[in-house]
Description:
This protein is mainly beta. The chain has helices spanning 23-26, 240-248; strands at residues 2-7, 16-21, 52-59, 77-82, 91-96, 104-111, 121-126, 137-142, 147-151, 156-159, 164-169, 187-194, 198-207, 210-212. The chain folds into two domains: 2-213, Sandwich (Jelly Rolls), CATH 2.60.120; 217-258, no CATH class.
Amino acid sequence: MVHYNIRKGVKKIKTKTSIALSAAALGIAGLVMAVAMPWAAGAGATPTSSFSLTPWTYVGAAGDCGVGTPAGTPGNVVSQWDYTTGNPSPSLYLQKSAPTTDCSSAGATVNGVSGITLTELNFDYKTGEYCGAGAPRFNVVTSDNVTHFFGCASGTQTTTTNGYTHVVFSPTNPAQAFPVIAPGTTVQTIDIVFDEQGSTHIDNISVNDQVIGGPNSKDACKNNGWKTLQDANGKTFKNQGDCVSYFATGGKNTANGS
């Protein structure tokens, strides 16, 4: 059994989730720190979700990723919207350039999921980019205080006609959910986590067949999310308030950055 402590990476969230993973069950050799909407092959899905995403990065202190583990390396993780590629664009770009054992991660929090009964998860990743046993993955915490892992390589994969691979997860499939979600439990939180060395673009992230196609809510501006966003004209935001104003007015108040 390999033991880790993983934080969500959002600055204002202080709680830490303790987890125990079976490296053999996830197909991970050695030390590894073990992430969905209607989809049509060859075409980007139309965002129809009541959920939103807040990108984050996390760099831990010594011991934060397990007893005796070293501190993470600043500057080696990236989580941001990439307006140059997607299915369609923008896509969420996740990168960890430090070794997998480094106490750092990139990811995004799915907002608005508290209390839902989870029926499915899926996303598209750019074909040829990183898709490992533990990253990118969904971390789902349920009402029984169990953390469930859905790693990219364990999902059912279908290649699209436009350079992406569609990955689907079932919360009741023991080959895809570690562990499976117990009947009658509901969701507390869902995060997308990337903490293995490499990089990938993911898009059309789905929860219960609701596609989150990109930043579509003022919630995406929080926790420094405004720094990675642009308005419809490709302009950046001056600050969080500028970003919130844009989304709150449906794009009427355009960005005041460069």
